């Protein structure tokens, strides 16, 4: 259990109702008798002093009285607005149960209804028409604060539900603050040093534009040069005033996500979870699977079905790992990948109108596909790709439920003994294949990981095969914490690969091949701590850290920097913290 109290002493300048309404400092009924007298709380609280254990039990009982996920979500948001320590302590005690409530999938429903649920603003809103005051608005929330983490979004590509305007970035179920909360919950980032930012550049969602209760800027999305200038103005403010923070890009549209990452990744420590987080956790699962079959990453043939931000991010992350781990040239590593999007296999004859610039490295020649059947539109479909390539790895990021048919899976099994199949699309109704079916169609030989949780599949010998969940939260908090810890000038490919390697080393399947390729979500805090240390160590190895201590101190410093949800002892000081 989490300890009841900490020896840390805080000098606090707040008193009375002001203290009780500060979520950072409020203890509720856990204020001691001495603290109640010192801070003018004796008449404002009932008599009994509760422990954090008792408070969590009471809060959990109240939570369970809500029948719907959205109702539980709303209760947890209210709790967070009152008391950070109690909120994070409760979550940490019921990690597997409550993470889906504060994060995916429940926040998708809340985001879609945000304007109608609005109660209290949280985070920073920077709006396109008000950009002349952007610096003033930014400093209003950050002046005098040490910020370790900024999570920002323009809300164009939210969790499979698309453009949601400022339907995000405010309540805990909304994406910027949800990501910040996961950083705190799983990596120990101090919530007072995190800032969520919504970049309101308008929306193309007709329902929101026609909704009289919509709370964002009711205008079409700004694009092109004006958009780029607005984003750049924000990024330069971060670089100027918070040079050592991690800037986390979240749910930017496919036309901007990779482009912005490439534009700024050498200027500041920036990270895109949709691209790099998805790529890193998938890479870790792949490394574990390759370890099970006692092979190498460079010896695999990869088909990626769905070439959006996630699919492309996975391809590049795995490609980079092949180059680094197996000493393969970039050109040769690219040739191991076959990407398929809505136009079919990415090959040269599709032309520039159908091939995004970011995909150019993975374009296949038409000559090698001259003898392969095409559909009525002249496109090479998934089954024909599988038959020709005989892939050892099949990854789905398409949101096309059932796309990995029995014919596709059986054709893959004919080409390799232990097919590695990762249907990663979310939510579960959009998964490319039910892992139970993939297990059955391969005679229990498939190595499986999914994007949503699934129950174990039965092996031919009657044993349960545990399905790994490729949950970004197993790695992105640790990647970010490692960058913050080392104050790295940038988030390098080497740092991400080092984190993925450390997560893969924790795979239960390496001890028992019938077990999951990735740790259980209950182990996410430990996994992220190990990832963070590996990332910081790699930053030292590359010489891009911003702190003066040595690589050997990484684990000690990581322990020291982690915030834990425990109450310290308060002493009143009019010059103390507010």
Walk me through what this model shows.
By secondary structure, this protein is an alpha/beta fold. It folds into three domains: 5-93, Up-down Bundle (Hemocyanin, N-terminal domain), CATH 1.20.1370; 106-268, Malic enzyme, N-terminal domain (Rossmann fold), CATH 3.40.50.10380; 273-560, NAD(P)-binding Rossmann-like Domain (Rossmann fold, 3-Layer(aba) Sandwich). It is 41% helix and 11% strand. The protein is built from 23 helices and 16 strands. The strands form four sheets. A seven-stranded mixed beta sheet has the order 9-8-7-10-11-12-15, sandwiched between helices. A five-stranded parallel beta sheet has the order 2-4-3-5-6. Strands 1-16 form a two-stranded parallel ribbon. Strand 11, helix 19 (435-441) and strand 12 form a beta-alpha-beta unit. Helix 10 packs across helix 20 and helix 21 runs antiparallel to helix 22. The longest helix has 20 residues, at 273-292. The radius of gyration is 24 Å and the shape is globular. InterPro entries: Aminoacid_DH-like_N_sf, Malic_enzyme_CS, Malic_N_dom, Malic_N_dom_sf, Malic_NAD-bd, Malic_OxRdtase, NAD(P)-bd_dom_sf. This is Malic enzyme.
């Amino acid at each position: 259990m989490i300890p009841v109290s900490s020896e840390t002493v805080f000098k606090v300048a707040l008193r009375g109702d002001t203290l009780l309404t500060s979520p950072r400092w409020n203890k509720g009924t856990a204020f001691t008798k001495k603290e109640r007298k010192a801070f003018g709380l004796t008449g404002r609280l009932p008599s009994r002093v509760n422990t954090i254990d008792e408070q969590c039990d009471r809060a959990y009982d109240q939570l369970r009285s809500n029948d719907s996920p959205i109702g539980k979500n709303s209760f947890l948001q209210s709790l967070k607005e009152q008391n950070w320590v109690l909120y994070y302590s409760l979550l940490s005690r019921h990690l597997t149960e409550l993470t889906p409530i504060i994060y995916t999938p429940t926040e998708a429903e809340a985001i879609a209804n945000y304007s109608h649920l609005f109660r209290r603003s949280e985070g920073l809103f920077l709006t396109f028409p008000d950009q002349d005051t952007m610096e003033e608005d930014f400093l209003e929330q950050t002046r005098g604060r040490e910020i370790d983490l900024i999570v920002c979004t323009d809300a164009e590509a939210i969790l499979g539900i698309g453009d949601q305007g400022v339907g995000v970035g405010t309540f805990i179920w909304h994406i910027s603050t949800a990501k910040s909360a996961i950083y705190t919950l799983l990596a120990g980032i101090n919530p007072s040093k995190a800032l969520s930012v919504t970049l309101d550049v308008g929306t193309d969602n007709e329902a929101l534009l026609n909704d009289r209760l919509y709370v964002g800027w009711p205008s079409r999305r700004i694009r092109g040069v004006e958009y780029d200038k607005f984003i750049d103005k924000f990024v330069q403010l971060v670089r100027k005033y918070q040079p050592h923070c991690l800037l986390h890009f979240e749910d930017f549209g496919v036309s901007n996500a990779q482009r912005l990452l490439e534009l700024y990744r050498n200027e500041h420590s920036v990270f895109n979870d949709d691209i790099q987080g998805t790529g890193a956790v998938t890479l870790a699962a792949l490394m574990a699977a390759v370890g099970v079959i006692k092979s190498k990453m460079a010896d695999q043939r990869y088909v990626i079905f769905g070439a959006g931000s996630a699919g492309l991010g996975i391809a590049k992350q795995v490609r980079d790992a092949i180059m680094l781990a197996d000493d393969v040239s970039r050109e040769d590593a690219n040739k191991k990948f076959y990407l398929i999007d809505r136009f079919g296999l990415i090959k040269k004859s599709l032309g520039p109108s159908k091939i995004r610039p970011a995909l150019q490295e993975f374009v296949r020649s038409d000559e090698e596909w001259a003898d392969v059947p095409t559909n009525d539109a002249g496109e090479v479909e998934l089954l024909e790709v599988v038959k020709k390539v005989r892939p050892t790895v099949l990854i789905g990021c398409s949101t096309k439920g059932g796309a990995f048919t029995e014919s596709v899976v059986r054709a893959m099994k004919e080409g390799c003994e232990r097919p590695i199949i990762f249907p990663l699309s979310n939510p579960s109704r959009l998964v490319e294949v039910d892992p139970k079916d993939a297990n059955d169609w391969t005679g229990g030989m498939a190595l499986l990981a999914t994007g949503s949780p699934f129950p174990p599949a039965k092996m031919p010998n009657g044993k349960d095969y545990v399905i790994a969940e490729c949950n970004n939260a197993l790695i992105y908090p640790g990647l970010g914490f490692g960058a913050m810890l080392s104050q790295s000038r940038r988030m390098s490919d080497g740092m991400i690969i080092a984190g993925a390697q450390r997560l893969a080393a924790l795979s239960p399947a390496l001890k028992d091949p019938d077990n999951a390729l990735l740790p259980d979500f209950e182990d996410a805090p430990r996994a992220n701590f190990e990832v963070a240390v590996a990332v910081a160590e790699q930053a030292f190895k590359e010489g891009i850290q911003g702190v003066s201590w040595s690589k050997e101190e990484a684990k000690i410093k990581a322990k020291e920097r982690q915030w834990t949800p425990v109450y310290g002892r308060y002493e009143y000081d009019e010059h103390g913290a507010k």
